[in-house]
Write a structure and sequence with these properties.
The chain is an alpha/beta fold. The protein is built from 9 helices and 8 strands.
């Protein structure tokens, strides 16, 4: 399954970086600005992979169907934009993984549903991404994941057949998108899985409990 892989593509939040502290703080500020009690990060963390939708659901119990959601979403975006690198860190083992991938001659990159408004300054601020050969944001193509378009665009930018790229992500949408793009997929079970996630039902080709475990799949351990 993984023997002909020449490129590794990753989701961003919950797969490479732990952005939950800044995402949660951006949403929590909306509560405290309204005189509501602050909520602990532990409540926000499981939903960090869902971005504004997840953070606003935790903070206010609202869904995108609510008439107030668009206004709250933009407020959340402004809060997050002002602080998105304050407490965001690279997951343990990721820097070593990326170094090993590069040393072995693999191309690598990022495919995220985060819009370029955030992806560009965030990745420029973190040295981890200096060697990335492609970074595809949620608005780079007309469709975001689970549509395969962003992954196919990343493969095009790498000048690589989709089947020679592996996609690693911590959300079922990542696996759906990867499968639709014709890429082998790996579920990152250490990421933001939510309370009811069952990675076994995602139909990923493999599941890893830590970033370094990917090296075993690539025959690099």
């Amino acid at each position: 399954m993984f023997k002909d892989i020449a490129a590794v593509l990753f989701d961003l939040d919950g797969t490479l970086i732990d952005s939950a502290p800044d995402l949660g703080a951006a949403a929590d500020k909306m509560r405290t600005d309204r005189g509501l009690a602050s909520l602990p990060l532990a409540l926000y963390r499981p939903m960090a992979g869902a971005g504004a939708r997840g953070m606003i659901a935790v903070a206010f119990g609202l869904t995108p169907d609510d008439a107030r959601f668009p206004e709250l979403k933009e407020e959340f975006f402004c809060n997050y934009e002002a602080r998105m690198t304050e407490h965001t860190t690279v997951f343990e083992g990721v820097a070593e993984l990326i170094a090993r991938i590069g040393q072995a001659g693999f191309k690598w990159g990022v495919v995220t549903n985060k819009s370029a408004r955030f992806t560009v300054p965030l990745t420029k601020a973190m040295p981890l991404f200096d060697t990335a050969q492609t970074i595809v944001s949620g608005d780079t193509t007309p469709h975001s994941k689970p549509h395969p378009a962003p992954l196919l665009e990343a493969a095009r930018q790498l000048d690589m057949a989709p089947g020679r790229c592996i996609y690693v992500g911590d959300d079922e949408r990542d696996i759906v998108a990867g499968r639709a793009a014709g890429m082998p997929t790996v579920a990152a079970a250490y990421g933001y899985l939510g309370k009811t996630a069952d990675t076994g039902g995602w139909k990923a080709d493999a599941t890893i409990a830590a970033p370094g475990a990917l090296l075993n799949l690539l025959r690099m351990a």
